[in-house]
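sry for the spam today, last one i promise. struct tokens for design, 212 residues
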């Protein structure tokens, strides 16, 4: 029946039949809602969370395009658009290789900038950190978010946390965002003191996670 067919579509990643209203594919985890506004009229914060997660991954030649896409999505939010525009200005003169070096020096070699949320939240309590990582592994598995290329012990990476938040219902996402926010604020403050260009990006994440 044609009217039933209109209720469904196929995931472009795994070709599974899904609801046309689905924000993400429950089979492969792919994010599907690409418009800044959802059909019911609400702002697509899940898309913002997904794009920010993409921007926290190691830069490639497409990185400037991703930053521009983020700014376009945030255009209707004056504060968010301003923050990401500031990040765009700070990295504009850097080549891909220069930006990748800054990224590695920042997130791979500087402990205070580590994206591992558990370590930021529980720097001296390994048991609590392990509990957080285990909970994140379960949460990611339930939403079909791929942990690779990160190791299972790094399931608390902020990139994965943002992808999980995008796939949670509103109440659960708000609770989880509140739990992650202190770690993000801690990283952003450390970057601010060091005048690191990624400060603007982390401040954008901090802004998104902060309750309005």
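last one done:
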């Amino acid at each position: 029946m044609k009217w039933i067919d209109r209720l469904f579509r196929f995931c472009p990643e795994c070709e599974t039949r899904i609801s046309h209203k689905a924000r993400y594919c429950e089979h492969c985890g792919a994010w599907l809602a690409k418009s800044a506004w959802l059909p019911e009229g609400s702002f697509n914060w899940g898309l913002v969370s997904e794009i920010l997660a993409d921007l926290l991954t190691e830069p490639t030649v497409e990185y400037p395009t991703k930053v521009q896409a983020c700014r376009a999505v945030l255009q209707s939010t004056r504060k968010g658009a301003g923050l990401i525009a500031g990040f765009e200005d700070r990295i504009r003169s850097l080549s891909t290789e220069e930006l990748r070096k800054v990224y590695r020096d920042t997130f791979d070699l500087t402990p205070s900038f580590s994206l591992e949320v558990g370590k930021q939240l529980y720097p001296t309590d390994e048991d609590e950190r392990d509990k957080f990582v285990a909970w994140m592994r379960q949460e990611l598995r339930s939403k079909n978010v791929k942990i690779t290329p990160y190791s299972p012990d790094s399931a608390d990476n902020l990139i994965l946390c943002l992808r999980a938040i995008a796939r949670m219902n509103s109440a659960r996402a708000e609770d989880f965002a509140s739990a992650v926010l202190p770690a993000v604020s801690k990283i952003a403050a450390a970057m601010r003191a060091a005048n690191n260009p990624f400060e603007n990006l982390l401040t954008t994440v901090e802004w998104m996670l902060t309750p309005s």
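Residues 1-6 have pLDDT under 50 and may be disordered. ok im logging off now
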